[in-house]
Amino acid sequence: MLLEKPCCVDGEDAAPVGAPRVVLVGNPNVGKSTLFNALTGARQHVGNWPGKTVAVASGEWRPGAGPAVGLVDLPGTYSLVPDSPDEELTRELLVDADRRPELVVAVLDASNLTRNLYLAAQIADTGVPVVVALTMVDVARSRGLDVDPDALAGALGVPVVPVVPRSGQGVDVLAGVVASALTAPAPFAAPSLGAALDGAVASVEPGGPASRWRALAALESADGPAREVAVGLVEPGTPDDEVAEEVELLVAEARYAWAHRVLETAVRRRGDRVTWSDRADRVLTSRWFGLPIFLAVMWGVFEATTSIAAPLQDAVQNLFDGPVSDGLGWVLGAVSAPEWLDGLVQDGLVSGVGQLLSFAPLMAIMFVLLAVLEDSGYMARAAFVVDRLMRVVGLPGKAFLPIIVGFGCNVPALAGTRILRNPRQRLLMNLIIPFVSCSARLTVYVLLAGIFFGNQAGTMVFGMYVLSIALVVGMGWVLRRVLFRDLAHEPLLLELPPYRRPALRVTAMQTWQKLRAFLRTASGIIVATVTVVWLLSSLAAPGAAAGSSFGHVAPEESLFGSVSRAVAPVFAPAGFDDWHASAALITGFVAKEAVVATTAQTYSAEEPADVHQAGALGPALRDTFTATSGGHVVAAVLAFMVFLLAYTPCMTTVAAQRQEIGTRWTLAGIVMQLGVAWVLAVAVFQVGVLLS
Amino acid sequence: MSIPEITDPTVRPLPEWPVGTRGVLRAVRAGGARRRRLAELGFVPGASIEVVGRGAGGLVVGVNADARVAIDRAGAEELWVAVHD
Known about the structure:
The complex is a heterodimer of chains A (692) and B (85). In chain A, 61% of the residues lie in helices and 7% in strands. Chain A has 692 residues and is α/β, with parallel strands linked by helices. Chain A has four domains: 21-183, Rossmann fold (3-Layer(aba) Sandwich); 195-269, no CATH class; 287-487, no CATH class; 551-691, no CATH class. In chain A, strand 5, helix 3 (113-126) and strand 6 form a beta-alpha-beta unit. Chain A is elongated, with a radius of gyration of 30 Å. The N and C termini of chain A lie far apart (74 Å). By secondary structure, chain B is of the alpha+beta class. Chain B has a single domain (11-83), classed as Ferrous iron transport protein A (FeoA) (SH3 type barrels). In chain B, 15% of the residues lie in helices and 40% in strands. Chain B has helices at 32-40, 73-76, and strands at residues 11-13, 22-28, 48-55, 58-63, 67-71, 79-83. The chains are: A alpha/beta (692), B alpha+beta (85). The interface between A and B is large, with 50 and 39 residues. Strand 10 of chain A pairs antiparallel with strand 5 (67-71) of chain B, so a sheet runs across the interface.
């Protein structure tokens, strides 16, 4: 039976059709993905499993001299009992008859074997043929644990191959073992759960694929024909509604008892010593140093995504504004391309693609930082240290990182939500990140505050940041009560993997893949948006003054001007019913960086070189807001700034969101942002009018 | 679910034991998905437990010698531990 192929971002599938499917299953942090990379090299891609929000990597692997197989890297999981979509997918694959793989490579961490065997026991119960890849043998040895692979193989009844995924050591042996296991598949010896449970299982086994797993699942849910057998397992007098839970606990205990028996035959412990990981934790998670160190790390992340990324972004932007634009201009001139094509290419596409590519260094930095923080083991500590603080605002500890990054730029922040394991949690964060006020919005605040608030300007700008934080917390609160009730109060319970040096080669490869996927998704949206805006501003509106021709239209006579004028009345209750203002907001949807320039254009004023000195733009804006607000200038400008803070940050965030949460949720997010922004702006203006 | 009272004075909730304590998990006073989650990470009756550290967010607990799990104080209250003699 063939497995359904995971869908892929780039639409190509590396594994030949009809090839056997081999899946990697294991706990998180066992080196599974590194092993996957060592096995498949570049022949792989990452994408969501069809119909699910679960990202899986799949690729082609040629084990030994055998034919190529399709290798799938399933998300790390602690058990096959589905509590999350990740686990649900693993369970479906291993249990549902028509999608079962030919072979499971169970990746087990030798330094943490008890819990790894708990998962192995469940895999064994599915009856799928298994080969064990044993990782971290060296780590185990350094901690005084000698794991004997042969003894382990004897106890489990399946081949056990020690591997070092990072260096590729043992991968050849694994390939050979997998190749022969594919020709002569052998399932795990079913782990004994003790006479009583084994007897109960035997009496309710339905037969067919995953029979033992199904029998155990039936007993653990204590319904149907298995109910009576289940009742026989628990202590007499157990209330009816507690039978299922009691059986579940019995099974869990029995699986651990089995794991301990396996350990006794396969592992020798040479005393115990304090690991340096524990020593590091005494400082890094301590009550006194934990939070300061965490803040220092977050400061580093923020600096890297702002100060370090900025010159790189500028360099890319300058490359496009200068040499690329000039070069294309020359080429278009040489082939005597029509003027409109020249305009589209130079003003539309080149600047749009330049803008997109200028985000590439920033995204790459973000992906590398995420991987390093995650792979080194520090991310789990950070989540632990900041958990109580974040709990006050109702968000998980790890959500801190994308929010911090968001103050620099929302685009990498959205990608940063990937540190959250729970997809619902990721979705929630993707919906509230756009309310984090990014640095591009700051330039507009500074311009407006400078013009209208004089020496109160600093306070007003600071107020926007306070409002931004209030919006993040408030919208998080609202969404959790309306759409995300299932996310309420998940107490802190997380594994702290041992500290480890990140594998840079793997990080580099994964960063490149994620970056490529981002650029692919984003390019369509961005090219479409810039083309539309360029077209609108190049076309004269019907009834424009004589002398306007394509590409030579004054802003107010262009279609862009007409659209802005048509939109403007929507903002009458917020006090800025004026086409200059709505034109700025429409441009702001494309990029907040362009708001100041567009505003200057619509007034035919020089774009201020420094937003602290507005020049001719100042009086022009003052006249506009005075006219639209009926004299309540301050209220109208504040309302405008609030709208600017709360609505869609830019088209690149839209593209990034689409990459993370799909088109439908992205659109819902835009509607929510516009709605919140409008309501807030109207509220600010109306309250302002009442107060004055 | 009903949880039987624990009367044995040597069995106490995890946060009551000082850092460095080693013991055996005697009872998990939680139900449903929470208990399943705890079991997945190794917290089933009979597991060996060590209080490795106390930090900003709660406790760092060693489970079955090798695993390290961070758990907040309220969650640690559900774990009833007897100390090795």
